[in-house]
Amino acid sequence: MSDALRLEHLDIDFSGDDGPLRAVHDLSLAVPRGGIVCLVGESGCGKSLTARAVMGLLPERARASGRILLETSRGVVDIPRLSERELRRLRGPGMAMIFQEPMTALNPVLRVGRQVDEVLRLHLGMSRREARAETIRLFAEVGIPAPESRYDDYPHRLSGGMRQRVMIAAALACSPSLLLADEPTTALDATIQGQILRLIHEQSRKNGMAVLLITHDLSVVGQMADSVGVMYAGRLVEWGDADAVLAAPAHPYTQGLLRCAPDRAQIGARRLPAIPGTVPPLTRMPAGCPFAPRCSQAGDDCRRNPPPLQPIGDGHAAACFRA
Fold first, then answer.
1. Region for residue 15 given its phi and psi (left: phi exceeds 0; alpha: psi -120 to 50; beta: otherwise)
2. CA angle 144, 132, 212 (to 5 degrees)
3. pTM
């Protein structure tokens, strides 16, 4: 398999009082070795849930079906079929994740340096002294000032941005084959955001690390992505080469997201354009296209049946009857 990660017909269901509720529908995509794929969409569209399914970290009431194929040094494995012990061996050198909220991901009673060097000692067999030196180097690489002194800090003594940098250092510590980055620069200022994105890009190109990057920021997609997938209500509604999707979006939802992105022409405007309405909850999902209630182009056919993801050009596909 030339892809580091391949999702094939992935469904994620939550058990409910009246039966299962499907949060991710028939999701198929691939992340090549050394490639960067971005997933974009509003909150509640299933992006983070997809990343957690890849890591084998779904909530207790959630179940994944379909195939999540990860290329490892021992061959291709199907994540849902692995035991917890096998998953623990993979997390670190095989795959790593930068979580969106570092305060809940870091252990509040352990010093941050110990939380990173534990990864190095467990997976790479480093001595305590070697792991400490490497952790301090990683802290400096992700932009943590005075890394030697920060090594012994507890998470509550660091700002949100500093905690996020600790999480990024831990994720990159073992040079994983696959990096799942869930809004990795949310709490960072613009200068550090650029530094972190460049670091991830360099690691991807230099080490052949595959990256699945989840973001709300379309400017990040333009800077980083080789390919982009647009998710809405748990479905992949558009997929393609990043330049092609950004230059000629085919799905009305993607078009709406691009209109909402601030640019120089809108500086000083009293109000930015917005997509009317909200993402439907799992308990009230429309029968047809889930975006139809918010779409100005929707017709009766859209309200009756969900459109399949269909090719509309070279490497470009959209799930829309009007595309």
1. beta
2. 55
3. 0.91
CA distances 272 to 14, 189, 219, 259, Å, are 35, 22, 16, 9
Q: Which amino acid is at 147?
A: P
260-285: per-residue pLDDT in tens?
Answer: 876 644 555 567 778 999 999 999 99
Q: How far apart are CA 321 and CA 306, in angstroms?
A: 9
**One-letter amino acid for residue 103 of the chain:** M
Overall CATH class of domain 3-225:
alpha beta
How much of the chain is helix, strand and coil, in % rounded to 5?
A: 40, 25, 35
Q: How many helical (H) and strand (E) elements, i.e. helices and strands, does the chain have?
A: 12, 12
Strands 36-40 and 235-241: unpaired
Pairwise CA distance, residues 80 & 85, whole Å: 13
DSSP structural state of residue 184: T
Q: How many CA atoms lie within 13 A of 197 on its CB side?
A: 22
Contacts of 16 (CB under 8 A, 6+ apart): 282, 283
The domains of the chain are located at 3-225
CA gyration radius, the chain? 20
Dist CA 183 CA 252 (whole Å): 24
Per-residue pLDDT, 203 = 86
